[in-house]
Amino acid sequence: MLLNPRMPCPACRAVVPNRHPVGKPYRCAACGAELQLSRRQGNVEFWIGILVAAALAWLLGFRGWALAGMTALFAIPVGFLSIPVFEKLWPARLEPYDGGRVI
Questions:
Q1: What is the enclosing helix (H) or strand (E) of 26?
Q2: What is each CA distance from 27 to 11, 12, 89, 94, in whole angstroms?
Q3: Phi and psi at residue 83, in whole multiples of 5°?
């Protein structure tokens, strides 16, 4: 969301500002709807990052428990480096807030 300041509200299509208090949902200025980033999209992006990290660790020759440990270690930089790629290929979208935890 930080890279894409023009996120439309799914209810009224107005532009939702990027700023929001940590732990609170985004709020549409036009209709007042509470919104969150798509949980499904976030989960898919997370698992793609884990698979890329595991492939990288495997290609570097790690096997067994070393593969698991290096996958966890490589997941952090892969996650940070994948953010701009995902924003270009699959921009983040908003969905109605479901009352759960918001980052």
A1: strand 26-27
A2: 11, 12, 25, 11
A3: -55, -50
Q: Is the pLDDT of residue 1 over 70?
A: no
Give the structural domain span for 13. 7-96
Could you give phi then psi for residue 9, rounded to 5 degrees? -70, 130
Domain-embedded: residue 1: no
Query: Stretch 78-94: mean pLDDT, rounded?
Result: 90
Domains in the chain: how many in total? 1
Residue 44 lies in a domain: yes
**Which whole number is the average pLDDT over 22-44?**
90
pLDDT tier for residue 69 given thresholds of 50, 70 and 90: very high
Write the burial class of residue 27 (CB in 10 Å: 0-12 exposed, 13-18 middle, 19+ buried). middle
pLDDT digits (tens, 9 = 90+) for 12-22: 999 988 888 88
Q: In this structure, is residue 103 part of a structural domain? A: no
